[in-house]
Amino acid sequence: MHSAVHKPMLATVLGQRQATPPMWIMRQAGRYLPEYRQTRTQAKDFLELCYTPELAVEVTMQPLRRFDLDAAILFSDILVVPDALGQTVRFQVGEGPVLEALDEKGIDALEPSRAMGHLAPVLDTVRRLRAALPPEKTLIGFCGAPWTVATYMLGGRGSPDQWVARKFALEHPAAFDKLMDILVTTSIDYLAAQLEAGADVVQLFESWALNLDDTSFARNVMEPNRRIVEGLRQRIPNAPIIGFPRGAAGNLRRYAESTGVNVLGVDFATPLEFVRSSLPPDIAVQGNLDPLRLVVGGEAMESQARAILSAFSDRPHIFNLGHGIVPETPIAHVERLVDLVKSWEARA
Ligand code: 1CP
Questions:
Q1: CB neighbourhood size of 201 (10 A)
Q2: Which of 182, 195, 203, 337 has the CB geometry, 3.0–4.6 Å to 242, for a possible disulfide?
Q3: How close is the Cα of 147 to the center of ligand 1, in Å?
Q4: For the residues 294-300, what does the mean pLDDT come to?
Q5: If pLDDT is split at 50, 70 and 90, which confidence band does 5 have?
Q6: How many whole angstroms from 96 Cα to the centroid of ligand 1?
Q7: Where in the sequence numbering do the catalytic residues fall?
Q8: Which candidate, 315, 291, 301, places its Cα nearest to that of 25?
């Protein structure tokens, strides 16, 4: 964290605008890369891939060998935390994650005291990555934000409307608060350990910050994220933090102001003009190309990439997609996008 080498991505996180914005790609290690699919066959399942440092380091490094990206993101998943707390988590091929959904008794049976021991291999991966990465590359650690992780823990799988978790939070407020407390505390320990192991910055993935009224947004999203930022900075002063509240829409500004994150990740449905006019000018923004434009390529991709670059050229900006890259993405389109961003130079 205190190296003298210039890391364009870390500098931007800390509020220094760069003429050419640094870039990385959410989910940059993954199934669109043949070498990822190859390495994946060496683990018996997806969780084993996450918990085997040699393999996790290899897949983390793969996208950086192909593309001139400014950051590597630890290869892991947001659902290693429920797994570490003792909940049953499985990744079915082609189906995504499946968990044994928690009820009130299940929440009482979680074992926070075993979580950090269980996550030790992930921290070993972080240490190895720091040693393997060139010093100018930023290493990003992460976890799921509590509400997003809770939607999987309570619902048992991903869902378009988070119905099960939203209903549980309203019907069983005490049990829900207990679950959020466990996730806040575990996330602080986990992110602090990642920063201590060599991560330069951490990202909170709040992928389901949508479908919530004012009151629930404050309780489920803002307050737990704020507590993590505060708790982490008590342990590690000035810890650099990216918040990505996907779908927060009109709540983006309150999220930024109440949590105190350094960088606001914006999804692709957020209007560029809204970001320009509604967010504090000193906060860095990260985003926000529609991953589908990267699948299609050509003018559909290039015109919007340029619109994003110019809309955010007067503030600290980290170029990224507005959600994760998808398996259908042609590698040649990623190469073209990286060239386009790297050859961009904003007029000061
Ligand atoms: O088959 C496979 O190989 C598994 C596919 C896969 C991968 C490559 C999953 C299952 N997770 C990951 C890695 C991953 N997940 C990373 C590290 C890789 C990188 O960024 O380069 C990260 C940061 C995540 C984060 C993650 N996992 C989120 C938050 C980001 C987002 O996309 O919203 C979420 C919601 C998950 C859960 C999850 N894990 C995997 C899948 C398919 C899903 C989504 C399930 C759903 O649709 O609800």
A1: 27
A2: 203
A3: 16
A4: 98
A5: confident
A6: 8
A7: 27, 31, 40, 77, 152
A8: 291
Question: pLDDT digits over 185-199, tens only?
Answer: 999 999 999 999 999
Would you say domain 8-342 falls under CATH 3.20.20.210? Answer: yes
Nearest residue CA, atom 42 of ligand 1? Answer: 96
- Distance separating alpha carbons of residues 316 and 285, to the nearest angstrom: 7
Distance CA 26, CA 169 (A): 29
The pLDDT value given to residue 280: 87
Domain locations in the chain as residue ranges: 8-342
Helix axes 120-132, 53-66, angle to 10 degrees: 40
pLDDT bracket for residue 3 (50, 70, 90): low
Q: What angle do CA 163, 164, 167 make, to 5 degrees?
A: 80
ipTM of model over 0.95: no
Is position 175 annotated in a ligand binding site?
Answer: no
Q: Is the CB of residue 75 less than 8 Å from the CB of residue 29? A: yes
The size of the chain, in residues, is 348
Say which amino acid occupies 121.
Answer: P
219 is in an annotated binding site: no
C-alpha 210 chain-centroid distance: 16
Give the whole-angstrom CA distance, residue 11 versus residue 2. 12
Tokens of 277: 């006019």
